[in-house]
Amino acid sequence: MSIESQFKMAAFQTAVEQRDAAVVCDQLSAAQFVLIHIQESGDSDSIDGPDADDELGALTADVDDQPCLVAFASQDHATRFVDQQRDLFASDDEVGGFVVSGQVMLDYLSEEYGLLINPESDDACFVDRDLIGDVLDELGLE
Questions:
Q1: What are residue 3's phi and psi, to 5 degrees?
Q2: What residues contact residue 48 under an 8 Å CB cut-off, 6+ apart?
Q3: For residue 125, what are the β-bridge partners?
Q4: Could you read off the pLDDT of 56-89 as tens digits, one per residue?
Q5: What is the pLDDT of residues 1-38, one digit of tens each?
Q6: Beta bridge pairs of residue 34
Q7: SS3 of 37, please?
Q8: What sign does the dihedral 94-97-100-104 (CA atoms) show?
């Protein structure tokens, strides 16, 4: 079963439009997502030390002056995004992806961040940080 088959984008978008935090929470928690990690050349010499490579950071963006985590509902969406947005990445950057459960993604998502799912696609969806805050409240993660 693919990642995408577990995530119902149309129902999710409706819940976001209606600002239904309970449904958004249920949909995100039950799904899996692909996050993009960019390792810039020379990252091993970062100020965090040589073990910093063991930690994965995910791609973020700004939407409506809000920082947001960028996530993809499938590997295909992530691959298309990277292929179409090559100008965002330096030629010597290593771009990879990793799969996380929606629950884990929410556990690490700060209420100061929104969530952008499937950017640059026909079914892109932005969840602003206020709604994310309500979702985190639903989970008791505020």
A1: -60, -45
A2: 55
A3: 117
A4: 578 899 999 999 999 999 999 998 998 888 777 6
A5: 445 445 788 899 999 999 999 999 999 999 999 998 87
A6: 72, 99
A7: strand
A8: positive
Q: Which two tokens stand for residue 84?
A: 């179409």
Distance, CA of 124 to CA of 86 (rounded, Å): 19
Amino acid (1-letter code) at residue 49: G
What Å distances lie between residue 130 and 29, 72, 127, 136, CA to CA? Answer: 18, 20, 8, 10
User: Which residue do the tokens 């899996």 mark?
Assistant: 32
Cα 22 to Cα 5, 27, 101, 130: the distances in Å are: 21, 9, 17, 14
Per the listing, tokens 């020379």 go with 42
Question: Position of tokens 């973020």?
Answer: 60
First-last CA distance in the chain: 32
- The total number of residues shown for the chain amounts to 142
User: How much is the pTM?
Assistant: 0.82
The secondary structure element, H or E, covering residue 36 is strand 32-39
